[in-house]
Input
Amino acid sequence: MPVAGAESRMDLHEYFDDFTARDWPQADGGVVRFAMIGLGWWTLDHAIPATNDLDHLETTVVVSSSTEKAEGVADQHETIEHALTYEEFQNGAAADAYDAAYVGTPNALHLPYVETAASYGNDVFCEKPLEANAERAEKLVDAASDVTLGVEYRMHVQPAVRMMRGLIADGFIGDPTHVHGNMSQLLLDINDDPDQWRLNPDLAGAGGSVTDLGVYSINTTRFVLDADPVAVSGATWTGTEEFESIPDERAAFTVEFPDGVLASCTASQNAHYASSLRVVGTEGELRLEDAFLGGERELTVTRGDTTITTNFDQIEETKESFRYFGDHVLTGTPLVGNGEHGLVDQRAIDAVYEAAERGERVEL
Output
């Protein structure tokens, strides 16, 4: 492919024009019935509406801490036939009324509900990270070894991210050399309760920023490079009273990939809303602004003397992620974000905290 000039500009425009976001197997029949485990705002505002909007998905079971809450949600959706407590779900109630369970509980509560769903032969779509630590995540993956286990990596279906993956695979920016990833937000503006689960190590895992936000930089870098990390180093800081329960109000960490590719990542639950992903190569670079937070995606592609910036129409990423999972379940085809894939992230997250605590590089 030409490096610069009119031919390069034409090649890049043609690549944009030819790009198709959905390049995975599409289901042409059947319906996946979901049990929604955990009725927090993400499940209510994103997950259930996704199944309502897609012909090959529907929610038939909801599970919450109280019968009243579950029934209140069920009353709002005509497809929901069963409103259960967590205990009822784990005792096997309505096990034949769903085909897959979406697990949207706090991280440290994923394992028991995955175990229950899988024990009845039902597939699982689990929120990220898989669990609170790698040991529990390994048990989770083992428990779901006989069913389809997917992890809800919404970036895997984001058209701008998929284009980055394609451009890198095609060698458009040469050999990747560096990645810069950031995600930060003002968590207490979203939920002003300092006792919320994301700031509770018993529920969130070792910290609050790397587990909840840094995972986006780690996983999306893996996805666009199509590579897994080999080592990490890191540093964390906490100094604000409301965040004293976690070690990483702010975090910075380096993730090493094969062939000397280095990813420098930052994450914070108490900083200005910002997210970006930049991949630098020997012949060009890709820069995605508002990479993870849900705003309009702007991808700037540079090769030689040619630079093109494209704004991608906003998509409902959770809806597209559910579509992706359902398509793979119905077509019986493997998906990228499976349990083993999720384990790599979990081990890397654990290693970041270990590296920060020890002040040493940790190999994976």
User: Anything to note?
Assistant: The CA atoms of residues 32 and 57 lie 5 Å apart. The two ends are 36 Å apart (CA to CA). The domain at 155-313+339-363 is CATH 3.30.360.10 (Dihydrodipicolinate Reductase; domain 2).
